[in-house]
Amino acid sequence: MAKQELIIIGAGAAGLMAALELADDFSITILEARAVTGGRIRSHPSLLAPLVIESGAEFIHGKLPLTFKLLKKADIDRAVVKGKFFRKEKGEWNRQNEMIEGWDGLLGNMRSLEHDLTMAEFLDIYYKDEVHAELRRHIISYAEGFDVADIRKAGVKALYEEWSHEEDKFYRIPSGYGSLIGFMEKECVRKGCAILTNQLVKQIDWERGEVAVLTERGDHYRANKAIITIPIPVLQQAAGTTSINFTPALDAYVKAAMSVGTGPVIKVVILFRKRFWEKDMGFVFSEEIFPTWWTQLPDKTPLLTGWVGGPTADRLGKHSEEDIFEKALQSLASIFEKPVEELKTAIVESYVFNWVNDVYSKCAYSYDMPETAAARKLLCTPVENTLFFAGEALYDGESPGTVEAALASGKDAAKKIRKIIG
Ligand SMILES: Cc1cc2nc3c(=O)[nH]c(=O)nc-3n(C[C@H](O)[C@H](O)[C@H](O)COP(=O)(O)OP(=O)(O)OC[C@H]3O[C@@H](n4cnc5c(N)ncnc54)[C@H](O)[C@@H]3O)c2cc1C
Hints:
422 residues, seven-stranded mixed beta sheet, alpha/beta
């Protein structure tokens, strides 16, 4: 009997994972809008090869099962991230053992909440007093930096779930996260999947058991089912460069997507001629516009990555790349008390990765608002056993917003389909 046809929209971690899971049972076509696969995973070769520059995902936050399993299968190495945490505030340097001093007490208060609140509401109840001003500032910068969340929207319960499962060790892939995508892509092709890039999907006409897809280039594709892995901000758009029009409309799903928080990020990567920071520095947190910077330890290459997330990234993302880079350099100059001109002359290569302006994702990763859990339940419900949504934002577990979350969601969509076909 001929295999059923399946279309997967988006060749990021979720789409490729779903394809790998279903390639034996379906004839699969993956339609990807970009010229390359990987989505929010993109590794660039640097002038200092084999050093790799990660424009998107960089860390593996703990021993995450699907990521580790794939790395093993692909025979790709991972390295434990090293280095100490430093904080520079009000002109003072501090070394610290954890990202936030007072972490345990904070988690206790978060755990004790009966009903979910936004982080802003929670801070107003527990940490309003002047004595807590510093802790309050650190919590906000952690939520905005790590979770790329707007504290006026982010739900405390989901943050608690994530923060209380934080692992001590995290990892990098020295050959780049892109090498994992390369492996998955090769495996998909080996199993017979067609991966078509530069295919921006604009229209999906569907009825039970039948899907007709139209791309911007005017190409038509037909299948029995489709898995849609486009990022949540793309699904949220009623009309936009990358948005998809569904007929019949899926208003309830699009509305549910509006209840998921989407976090903006700008990453600036600068390779210097030589190190000018402490040799055991892993991360530095500050009060600057680009508040967070990290090194490549244990790799000693003199490379710094600057990171700004949340509402500040949203505002800054509208500026030109030159402007953003200048702001990043000013932040660095202020933290390390060096003239901007001196830093400029020491630069070998530099990059600005403005994910706020990336039309195919419009965010780095999602976060939960108090209303997200119910919305996610609907988004994870198949539409007439014909359309299935997947992607990092639809994952419900301890590692939200990660590559692991995307892999798990792709796998989960595949499981639902397998259950239907029996
Ligand atoms: C700057 C940055 C840093 C990050 N850091 C980390 C980290 O350190 N660790 C970690 O685990 N995770 C990190 N992440 C998050 C991680 O990259 C994502 O969670 C994950 O890659 C998402 O995978 P996905 O398949 O769900 O979505 P995506 O990778 O976005 O895949 C969706 C695909 O759909 C395509 N698409 C969109 N619209 C259309 C359309 N209309 N037609 C066809 N195709 C379309 C997109 O081009 C994209 O390729 C980071 C992300 C960013 C941006």
